[in-house]
Design goal:
This protein is mainly alpha-helical. Among the domains are: about 1-125, Ankyrin repeat-containing domain (Serine Threonine Protein Phosphatase 5, Tetratricopeptide repeat); about 590-680. It is built from 41 helices and five strands. The strands form two sheets. Strands 3-4-5 form a three-stranded antiparallel sheet. Helix 17 runs antiparallel to helix 18. The protein starts with a helix and ends in a 5-residue tail after the last helix.
């Protein structure tokens, strides 16, 4: 009988017979039980009308279920219509199915206890377990599972390839998942696109569900891929830190790489790439704390998590990864083929990058909780954010990337931080011996070539006795040569030539290597062109050219001498203490040249005017001489010399000279001076920035040498080990402050004071200091931070602690002064 009813229901479902609303529907909606009983007794078409659908596709029985009228349902079914208990509506739902959908417990109990079949499904092949699991109703599902003995509907699949367990996981109902798993639901079933239950649970942020599935399933499920991602990677992409924690606990591999997912920043990347790409800070924090080596694992496009976060503009993630050891100096290549470091990406895609870096640098300063005027104050500057953790790697790459950013405002706000200046000074202390060697090399070349040129000049002018006597340098060289019986003029020339060529043989390969390494950046520097000019002209003069006349050789030698001495000036600019004045000079020179170029039309105009007025007479014979004379007249007028020889009253010439005097000598010269030194404070800051940039450039050149593997291989092993130990600057610098005493420091006094001033500035701004590992912070401040008091009360407590510490410092100093005075009184007076 049950089989016949089931077959009849399927035939009706296939036919989808839909009749007009009958009077039986109207009676059911009205809820009139007496009228319903009357119709069931008198109407011969009663059973046929029970199978009719209304406009919503419901039979009268389904309408009664929707209305939750158990009395109507029992009246109909218990009057000889029990066989209709499994009747379907237009979409194939039985009465029990519909009762489960509306969570009508009373009706469900009745249908289950009166023969309703659980196995009947709707048109999409879903059964009542699918519905209960989709609703997340654990009590209802528990009751249905108890009636499922021998039928095993828990693993039935609907037309969407979903099991009841799938629906429960999608609903994130841990109670339903637990019931189905206990009843025998299979965890390993997945959809045709390989989306597993773990992917669904991770996607819906259900760590409890994940834990249940992993307890009942196999641990290998955590490595299954869906759309190129494992459940762990999907949870990282969604930012679900609790799910990430559970999946890692059950064996999820944080270093496993994704498949091809479309976005090149995360394609074939780790979990940290995904979290960094979408800015999920909590997931980033958990992953980095779980395995810090993730920071140094690139994806297949060689992009690191830090670079991914910086390119995506995720400020907090970038900040956290830098503080915890991500390397700023590593270089990646974008889709356009342009190389970029993390510094470049931060400067381009992080809002207000100078503020971001200042924050990073400020957080690298630690104190032990005392103000700077306290006797026990200790300050620690940490340089971990600037240098890689591996001491075998170069330390200045991040700073080189910093100075390559073409933004003067950014450089001024970033490079003048005491942390950068102190690190550069400590690095300088390590490498200054190599700087001395480079300077001695250039001095050797410059002095030897200058001596060579002077000696050659002395030989060429040997027949001009007056010139010899009037030139003290030549007289000295001649006297030295003639007074030494062992040294001839030829030997002096050969010795200086060998010195110049020998030093050039060392300088040349270094410059060529630097040009090949820096490429375009190398040729943007004036020094590079100076060195190239020196090397080319020196080789041409000493090696290639032998037939030139003396005048040509002298002219070329003069250019070489001027360039080599100028290069020595640029080398001296690398000194921490001397470089500031030299670079200030260069900055002022740039301003003066800019003014001269701006007013060049006026100068050229006066040059032609004076040449025409004076009819090409001395000193305005040609335009070039006239131009030179006008430039000289800008500082000295020579009025008497110009007009004393001219006959008559040349009013036009004197008028033009007066105009020149006003416009050029007074107006333009004062303007030039004013612009050159208009803002001394700004000029000093620019000079300091230029000095730091110059310092970084030169130290980077020295690092090219001392970190070069070829250079280390040709050195003796003991010397190589010594070089490795001395080339790296320390990763931190700690110093103590002694108020009212002269404290000794390896740093210059101005830099030492600047570092203290920065701490004072942060302290006054209620900066949240970290504690040094070696020392402990004030206990009361720590307790306040733990107890989560309001911010105002914490600030008041901190201010009180600061006042107490200052008072304690003053009292201690007074006590020391008293002791010293007492000791002086106790000493006997000298007779």
């Amino acid at each position: 009988m049950s089989g016949e009813n089931n077959l009849r229901m399927r035939i009706r479902r296939a036919g989808d017979i839909k009749k007009p609303v009958t009077c039986l529907h109207t009676v059911v909606i009205s809820g009139n039980i007496e009228l319903l009983k009357s119709l069931s007794l008198k109407n011969d078409e009663f059973e046929e009308n029970l199978s009719a659908f209304d406009k919503d596709g419901f039979t009268p029985l389904h309408r009664a279920v929707i209305m939750r009228r158990l009395d109507i349902v029992t009246t109909i079914l218990e009057n000889g219509m029990q066989h209709l208990i499994n009747i379907n509506d237009l979409v194939g739902r039985t009465l029990l199915f519909l009762a489960v959908e509306i969570e009508w417990i009373e009706g469900i109990d009745y249908f289950l206890n009166n023969g309703a079949e659980l196995s009947l499904s709707s048109q999409d092949n879903s059964n009542v377990l699918h519905v209960a699991a989709r609703l997340g109703n654990a009590d209802l599902l528990s009751e249905l599972v108890q009636f499922d003995t021998g039928i095993t509907l828990v693993n039935s699949i609907n037309n969407k390839n979903q099991t009841p367990l799938w629906n429960a996981v999608k609903k994130s109902s841990a109670a339903c998942v637990s019931l189905l798993l206990t009843a025998g639901a299979q965890v390993s079933l997945s959809q045709p696109n390989n989306k597993s239950l773990l992917h669904m649970a991770a996607e819906n942020s259900s760590p409890e569900t994940l834990r249940l599935l992993l307890d009942f399933g196999k641990r290998t499920m955590v490595s299954e891929m869906f759309e190129g991602m494992t459940p762990l990677q999907l949870a990282c992409r969604k930012g679900l830190v609790d799910c990430v924690r559970v999946l890692i606990e059950y064996g999820g591999d944080v270093k496993q790489k994704t498949g091809v997912v479309g976005d090149y920043l995360i394609s074939r990347g780790t979990c940290l790439h995904l979290a960094a790409r979408y800015g999920h800070l909590k997931v980033v924090e958990f992953l980095v704390q779980f395995d810090r080596s993730l920071l140094s694992i690139p994806n297949d496009d060689n992009w690191y998590p830090l670079h991914v976060a910086a390119r995506s503009g995720k400020v907090d993630c970038v900040h956290f990864m830098i503080v915890h050891g991500a390397d700023l100096s590593k270089q990646v290549v974008d889709r356009a083929g342009n190389p970029n470091t993390a510094v470049d990406l931060i400067a381009c895609f992080i809002p207000q990058p100078h503020t971001f870096f200042q924050r990073i640098f400020d957080e690298s300063i630690e104190t032990n909780g005392h103000p700077t005027n306290h006797i026990h104050c200790q300050i620690k500057y940490k340089y971990n954010v600037l240098i890689p953790s591996d001491r075998e790697k170069r330390q200045l790459k991040a700073l080189v990337s910093l100075i390559n950013i073409n933004n003067d405002y950014f450089l001024e706000k970033t490079l003048l931080h005491p942390m950068i200046e102190s690190f550069l000074y400590l690095k300088w202390q390590r490498l200054k011996i190599f700087f001395i060697a480079v300077v001695m090399l250039y001095v050797t070349f410059t002095v030897s070539f200058t001596a060579l040129s002077v000696t050659m000049l002395e030989r060429a002018t040997n027949n001009n006795q007056s010139t010899q006597q009037n030139n003290p340098i030549i007289s000295f060289v001649k006297e030295y040569v003639s007074s030494s019986p062992l040294v001839s003029s030829e030997s002096v020339v050969m010795f200086n030539k060998l010195l110049a060529l020998g030093s050039l043989l060392i300088i040349g390969p270094v410059e060529i290597y630097q040009a090949l390494t820096l490429r375009r950046c190398y040729f943007l520097k004036i020094e590079s062109w100076l060195k190239a000019t020196i090397m080319v002209l020196t080789v041409w003069t000493l090696v290639l050219d032998s037939d030139s006349d003396m005048q040509t050789r002298s002219s070329i030698s003069a250019v070489i001498i001027l360039c080599s001495w100028s290069e020595l000036l640029f080398l001296l600019a690398c000194l921490p203490n001397w470089g500031f004045s030299i670079l200030m000079f260069c900055r002022v020179a740039q301003n003066v040249i800019k003014v001269l170029v701006t007013f060049s039309c006026l100068i050229v105009g006066f040059s032609f005017a004076f040449m025409v007025l004076f009819q090409s007479s001395e000193p305005f014979v040609s335009f070039w001489l006239s131009f030179l004379k006008v430039m000289v007249m800008m500082t000295e007028y020579d009025y008497g010399d110009l007009f004393s020889a001219r006959e008559g009253q040349d009013y036009l010439a004197r008028t033009i000279f007066l105009v020149f005097l006003i416009l050029v000598s007074i107006v333009m010269m004062n303007l030039m001076v004013g612009i050159a030194v208009s803002d001394i404070a700004l000029l000093e800051d620019q000079g300091r920035v230029s000095r730091i940039i110059k310092h970084i450039d030169f130290l980077d050149l020295l690092e090219e040498l001392v970190y070069n593997d070829v250079f280390l291989k040709i050195m003796p092993k003991r010397a190589g080990r010594s070089l490795k130990s001395m080339r790296a600057a320390p990763s931190y610098f700690t110093f103590k402050i002694r108020p009212l005493r002269n404290s000794r420091s390896i740093l210059p006094p101005s830099l030492h004071q600047s570092m203290i001033n920065k701490v004072d500035e942060l302290y006054k701004n209620n900066y949240n200091y970290n504690s040094c590992p070696e020392t402990s912070m004030n206990a009361s401040c720590k307790n306040d931070l733990r107890t989560e008091k309001p911010v105002d009360s914490i600030c008041e407590q901190c201010k009180s602690n600061v006042a107490d510490s200052k008072l304690q410092c003053i009292l201690e100093e007074i006590a020391k002064l008293k002791d010293e005075l007492q000791s002086m009184k106790d000493q006997p007076l000298a007779h």
